[in-house]
Design a protein that fits this description.
With 285 residues, this protein is mostly helical. The protein contains 13 helices and no strands. The protein has helices spanning 3-21, 23-27, 32-53, 62-88, 91-98, 101-112, 119-135, 151-172, 178-191, 193-199, 212-236, 239-262, 268-284. Helix 1 (3-21) packs antiparallel against helix 11 (212-236) and helix 6 runs antiparallel to helix 12 (239-262). The N and C termini lie close together (9 Å).
């Protein structure tokens, strides 16, 4: 297995399992914004391990700091924008918009990095781009009504942020180490944690037990591990392939695990997305 594919598979598995398990604390009332704070802290051990592997060498030149920080701001900032978009708009409208972010990555990588692929791989890319919004489908009855129209520009911000982040990760990996990139991503995520704290509604009754933070930390560690291996995937692989593959396979794994854990049969639209994701993975891998 090629390096990029191995790291991409680890990311998809980590994020797929994380997506299925994160429902446990959130169903018990643990706010997603506090989950962000816990996630930012779980990034720190991963960053330390990464730096240890390269002899604690951190690139401190202005270009590296700027690229690493940009990747972190685009990823973590997009997450915070998503929280606000979901507060103001229905999930069944927000997520399909956000799910199209790999299209931005593919377009930028092809236009600015000159990346190309074989016809078979391009077929897989297209199928993955179709599969992602299908996998994000949610029935309208499961989401609150929209509060105004601000949710849409916020969703566009997330869409652009996450799409551009993949391009930045690939571009940055050409001139700096993946370990330094992840360090700056971690620093940015932690720096934005107070913003997530301010976005948290502490007036809601707390239903979670004393062990909830530890459970959330264990689950969010999967998110952090996936973020680290994603950076490595962009070091060795093309953005036009890595981005749509991860974004298609991870939610398919989440849906499959949710079927086993919660005995929830996926909607036929979601099932169609799972089938397309499987075909796309075969074609791209």
């Amino acid at each position: 297995m090629e390096y990029w594919l191995g790291y991409a598979v680890i990311t998809a598995l980590s994020w797929g399992v994380w997506g299925a398990l994160i429902e446990f604390p959130e169903r018990r009332g643990f706010p997603a914004t506090l989950g962000y704070v816990v996630w930012s802290l779980t990034m720190i051990p991963c960053a330390l391990v990464a730096l240890h592997l390269v002899g604690w060498t951190l690139e401190l030149d202005a270009r590296s700091v700027a690229l690493g920080t940009a990747a972190g701001l685009l990823g973590a900032g997009g997450q915070l924008a998503l929280f606000e978009a979901l507060r103001r708009g229905p999930a069944y409208l927000v997520f399909p918009v956000v799910a199209l972010s790999p299209a931005v990555s593919v377009g930028l990588a092809a236009a600015l990095l000159g990346e190309s692929a074989s016809p078979r791989v391009w077929t897989g890319i297209v199928l993955a781009l179709v599969a992602v919004p299908l996998l994000s489908y949610q029935p309208a009855s499961n989401s609150p009504a929209a509060r105004g129209r601000l949710w849409f520009p916020l969703a566009i911000v997330v869409f652009l942020s996450w799409g551009i982040q993949a391009y930045v990760l690939r571009f940055a990996n050409r001139t700096m180490s993946s370990e330094s990139i992840f360090f700056y991503m971690t620093a940015t995520a932690v720096a934005l944690a107070p913003v997530a704290m301010r976005m948290t509604n502490f007036r809601k009754p707390r239903r979670w037990g004393p062990g909830a933070p530890a459970l959330v930390a264990a689950i969010q560690s999967l998110n952090s591990i996936g973020a680290l291996t994603m950076v490595y995937a962009f070091r060795y692989g093309k953005a036009i392939v890595v981005s749509p593959l991860i974004n298609a396979v991870a939610p398919a794994i989440t849906v499959a695990l949710s079927l086993l854990i919660y005995r929830t049969v996926p909607h036929r639209i979601v099932a169609s997305g799972m089938a397309l994701a499987a075909v796309a993975f075969f074609l791209m891998a």
